[in-house]
Amino acid sequence: MLQSFRDKRVLNLAQEIDKNPDYRIPELLLKVEDILSSVSSGSKQGLEIRKDLWTLELLHLTVSVLEQDVTKFRNAWTLTSRLVRILCNACSGLHMRDCNEYHTVFLPECVKCVLTLSKKVHLKLQKTLIYKKEVVKDITECLKTSLESLDLLCSGHNFLCYNVLKSEEFLEILMTEDANIVNIITTFFQNICRKSSGIMEEIGDSTVFTLLDELIFKITSSDKPEIAWASIKTVLLACDFNPSIVHHLCTRYKGLKPLLNRWHKKGFDLDLDRLILLLEAGSLEEVANERRNRAAAKIQALWKAHKTREAIKKRNESIARFQRSFRAKRVEKEQTKEKGRLQKELQHQLLINRKQTMKKFHEKVYLTLESVPASKIEEHLESERNKAAIKIQACYRSKLSRRRFNNQKEQIKTLRAVVVLQRSIRKWLKKVLARRNEPPAWQRPPGLDDQRRVELNEKIQLYKHLHPVRN
């Protein structure tokens, strides 16, 4: 019999529990947590350990311990949380199709045990709200851990969701008015609905009405937005998994819609509007159509707004471009007008300067003629004419020289380009001839005899010795 157990740690723990008194059993059962955490839950060894726990009735013993008065334990709330976690973890990974007792008797008993324990913890919490915050925090954490462990158990065995929602203990915990407990229990309720999509139809109308009555009561009578929001999310999730609940909401709670308006602008308008839309539509199909219509209207509004913004943007850009062009043309026109005015002033000033220069020149000529004797006037005039002719000839020759130089500049540029091209061709031809004169690769280079080869090998070995390869 002892050889049938594959994990000796479980067998040793069972023998140790059998030898110790009852008050030490809860602390000894905590060792199961270390055994379970040492292996993966989905592995073959993990399944064998869980089967050994079932065979040695350690799971039954854990349920029996949890059914006792847990307040007598040392570190009661932490110990209770760990025991519940151990029980649900062990059962969630254990599937025995050949054992009818495990599925039909023991697992429902585990669910009832955990819910009863959660109810006791909840009642204890209501009585200890006036105590220290540390005590309230420990009790709340114990309740949260218990429900999370039960959620894990239902994940491994979905049929247990029916037992959870049909139990009176679950309904009693749901009736709490504490915001933290409401968030914990509604989150657990939502997870149960997600695990079994048809659970709301399986539990029957009477249970559904009871749960809905409590949730609607919290929405309408509670003064805390957290409780109302958690209840609204739970109702919406139940409607998603069971469309018939929408009809019950519209017929059973006809005055609910006006009572929901007081929760506007409390931080959960999206879920609140969805619930109001459900009450107005009367069915999920109508809600879906209305949501599609609203989505289409919103998309159209966004598209029209986008097109309007684009049109305004283009219009602004066109106006800005027109203004910029108009200002540029106006500036250009003013600059042209100013340039013309300055040109006319310059021409007028040049004309005046020329007239003044000619006047001074004529005055100088007259003064010169007055100083020249009458007999030498013709000689003086001839000399002036020669000077003028020489100056005209010099100006003409300089003009011809400049024209001739401009023509020669293109010729010089062409000649330089020809010289550069010839130089490049000569270099290329020189490289080609040098390559042709090189000896072929298969021919031994001149001067390479055996003595020269030995000298080269010695130089190579010396270089390798001085420069070793680094690994």
TrEMBL record:
Gene3D superfamilies: 1.20.5.190. It comes from Dimorphilus gyrociliatus. It comes from the Eukaryota. One of its GO terms (biological process) is cilium assembly. GO terms for cellular component: cilium. This is DgyrCDS4702. SMART domains: IQ. GO terms for molecular function: calmodulin binding.
